[in-house]
Amino acid sequence: MPMKVLFVSSEVFPLIKTGGLADVSGSLPLALQNLGVEMRILMPGYSPVLAQLQNLQHLAHLHHLPHIGSAELLLGTIPNTSTQVIAIKAPYLYERDGGPYIDAHGQEWQDNPVRFGVLSKVASILASKLSPLKDWQPNIVHCNDWQSALAPAYMRLTEQSRAKSIISLHNMAFQGTYPPHWVSSLGLPHVGFSIEGFEYHGQMSFLKAGIFYADAISTVSPRYAKEIQTAAFGFGLEGLLTKRGDEIKGILNGIETEEWNPAHDKHLIANYSHTKMAGKAKVKQALQERLTLDIDANAPLLGVVSRLTYQKGLDMLIPHLQNLVNQGCQLALLGGGEQALESAFKQIAVQNPNRVSVTIGYNEPLSHQIMAGSDMFIMPSRFEPCGLNQLYGLAYGTPPIVNATGGLADSIIDTNPAHIANKTANGFVMVEASEEGLIACIQRALDVFNHDKKTWKAIQKNGMKQDLSWNKSAQTYLALYQSLV
Ligand code: ADP
Ligand code: GLC
User: Fold this and answer.
1) In terms of DSSP bridges, do strands 203-205 and 199-200 run parallel, antiparallel, or are they unpaired?
2) Tens digit of pLDDT for each residue in 436-477?
3) What are the helix (H) ranges across 352-452?
4) Which residues have C-beta atoms less than 6 Å from ligand 1?
5) What is the mean predicted confidence (pLDDT) over 205-211?
6) Which atom of ligand 1 has the smallest separation from the CA of 384?
């Protein structure tokens, strides 16, 4: 009998995306399916999700859900794939204007505990004897981040499910911590509201529930698995994580190698590969035209596509940006987030109209064009559970400049004589997480880019030739599933 896995996620590319979790949720299930696992994704039925799913059909009605009573389950497929998605149709919770987590003004939806409590509860029901899906009972419920992290608690405490649960930690900075009255509102038994459970400093914590009750824990890179057991990266949960330390499996994310492939990327005016690089120069020129930067093949073009938050460390770039421009560099930035960061970058763009371009907002085609058209990709994150953009940078011959943390440390190999000699160098790694560390690292990259084209081409090629696909990591997830059942 093939293994059946319910993969629970609050965002899935291409249906809805705010960041890397969507990329992973759109590509890992497919890779596991190719290994013979019967995967179904469970997610909220946000309006754009219902609008895009294909072959949508009624699956079941569920009753006795916290707060909302009943909801309908729909089954559909992701366009151009065979990936099956179960969407929870609950218009009152999920069909509204705004993002999956925040409203149009950037405020967290007040009812997020219900919105994601219901997601978790439905997962638990589908893994129990009460499930209306008699012909599809999962062996494993694979939860992702805080939004589905109550599922292992429900599975253990209310539905007494026989299925096993896994929580994958994509970012410890977001935990879903709410006032204690939510315990009864969400139909959770009070026995769980303790240190040995989901209580966290008098509040109830979705993420702690997942870490405490899940049968297995994974992180999205090996380095992050170790980091989160320290106070600097555990965001208060390092104590609990240390207790389960030996069990935490770090599995590096892969990328979707069709969507993110310069040889077929439909968002680019020209395609290229490591054996035929000419197209990259055309994409750079088109990017400079689109962003009204000076058309200059030789100007080092620095690319950034990022949420603009403390995590991403881009504030460290601001004090040196004018100096870099004075040296002939250009910057193409796409992102959004904290107001102060957005304004600081916009102001530098106003002062340097043909050298610095700042696009605030979310733009999928432009993100591909910046990835391909830039010469180097800047990602000085203070912490980075995995990071996908540096992997895209490798695939696109745009060497990443990164801080030595999490998945960045696990995927980027610094350009130094030893790594040049053994053909592993694929980017530049900061020596320290500071403004000075970042500028020193960028200067090292500029030295190679401007004065040693042979080495530059070699590091581009090293990255482009790497197997960045899910092949290996999907096997590791499969082995983890098998070890549980
Ligand atoms: P995180 O999930 O922490 O934001 P990742 O590097 O794992 O970081 O993934 C970010 C994903 O979101 C990438 O696919 C990136 O291209 C995309 N992304 C981030 N900001 C934007 C934006 N403003 N427009 C389009 N895509 C974006
Ligand atoms: C989170 C992390 C990012 C990771 C992504 C997918 O958003 O911040 O580092 O790549 O999840 O796992």
Assistant:
1) antiparallel
2) 999 999 999 999 999 999 999 999 999 999 999 999 999 999
3) 364-373, 389-395, 406-411, 417-421, 435-451
4) 19-20, 23, 305-307, 334-336, 362-364, 367, 386-389
5) 98
6) 3
In the reported structure, the alpha carbon of residue 285 is separated from the centroid of ligand 1 by a whole-number distance in angstroms of: 23
Query: Please, what is the average pLDDT of the chain?
Result: 97
Q: How far is the CA of 229 from the centre of ligand 2 (A)?
A: 17
The residue range of the domain holding 175 is 4-254+470-484
What is the percentage of the chain residues whose pLDDT exceeds 70?
A: 100
Edge to edge, the sheet with strand 249-250 lists 54-65, 69-77, 84-89, 38-44, 4-8, 140-144, 164-169, 216-219, 249-250
Write down the H helix ranges in 144-214.
151-157, 182-185, 206-213
The per-residue pLDDT for range 343-375, each reduced to its tens digit, is: 999 999 999 999 999 999 999 999 999 999 999
Same domain, 331 and 222: no
Sign of the four-CA dihedral 192, 196, 198, 200: positive
**447/310 same-domain check:** yes
Write the CATH number for 376. Answer: 3.40.50.2000
